[in-house]
Amino acid sequence: MARYYLGVDGGGTNCRVRLADANLQTLAEVHNGRSNLQIDGGEPAYKAIAEGTRDVFRAAGIDYAETANTHACFGMAGGRMDSARAGFAARPWPFAGVRVYDDIDIAHAGALGGEEGGVVIIGTGSAALAIVDGQRHQAGGWGFHIGDQMSGAILGREMARYAVEAADGLVEASPLTRAVLEQLGGSNQAAMTWAFATAMELKLVGPGGAEGGDDALIGRAPAEYGKLMPLLFEHLERGDPVARKLLDVELGYVETYVRWFKSHGAGVMAIVGGLGHRLFPLLQQRYGDFVALPRYEPLHGALILARQNFPPHKDA
Description:
By secondary structure, this protein is an alpha/beta fold. The protein is built from eleven helices and ten strands.
């Protein structure tokens, strides 16, 4: 009887589904819609994976009925909450077995090839996970509003704030601050308009059941701030003093996590994420062999975890 593994890298804007054989050799891969577990109770994620499963079996030329011989692992954005993962795993999946993880778990498994150590995500968001002596230690990943200190979104927000302060004459201006302000509309008033979504019809329930109120003030999505990152690196190459100051803030956040990893006995910190890869040469200069690039991508990490959770029978 054939045995298959299905891995999912469920991102907030894109869901990737990969089907592999018992040796984790890829048979087919498809992309689908958004799949953050915190969006609409996970319903869009469920739809994206359900449709992606049908698509990937079709692409591989394998009968959909073989899902009964398939073990699946999902690494999901918005999967930090235990209740969200448990509820999603309990949905009516067609697979022989399902495990739902936070997206950092599949990043960890992919980056370290399923071995122990630490991984840090430094992308639009940020989070950290160490597995040492079988013990799991996790930090960060609490989202844009209260966490994600190392992220491109937070760094981009700091760039925007600094540019506005510079225009007010509160801090030093530079070519970077002027370029950021120009990208946000050219003035502090334009930047303020950009920062808040104004064309949204919201009915938020507050204390006592009252609707509306100040809670309805919704700002730009984290990814919108992350789009400012190219300006930072462009001006770093030109020696911009504000760019260097902001980079030092970012590296300070990374240093906090390096100390955290080492306190838990991690012997390596793999760097995952677009911003992390841009920073990697600097991090390697600081930390040497303690930092490493990932061996595999997170989607392959989902397959590794699927096989670890549901290993093939010895006679298979």
